[in-house]
Amino acid sequence: MESPFLSILVLVAAVLLVGVTGGVGYLTLADWRDRRLREQEKRETRSTTPKNTAPKKSDSKNTAKKRK
Question: Please, where are the H alpha helices in 1-68?
Fold first, then answer.
């Protein structure tokens, strides 16, 4: 003999479980999609940015100070 209160409680728990699981799945999918887009933009930016081939001028005094 089940009470209607327990039946409603089980139904609410099942609905909440499905809702939370769906929300976690959505957030995971959105994060994956955003990460993929960021990596793609980074690759495109890297390939279109001209590389600086000129050697950098460094001051030997500053280099020695940085090493200490």
Answer: 4-48, 60-67
Distance CA 57, CA 6 (A): 77
Distance (Å) of CA 46 to CA 25, 39, 49? 32, 10, 5
pLDDT tens per residue across span 16-40: 999 999 999 999 999 999 999 999 9
As a whole number of angstroms, the distance between CA 59 and CA 68 comes to: 15
Q: How far is CA 8 from the centre of its chain?
A: 38
- In this structure, what token pair is assigned to residue 57? 């001028």
The pTM assigned to this predicted structure is 0.57
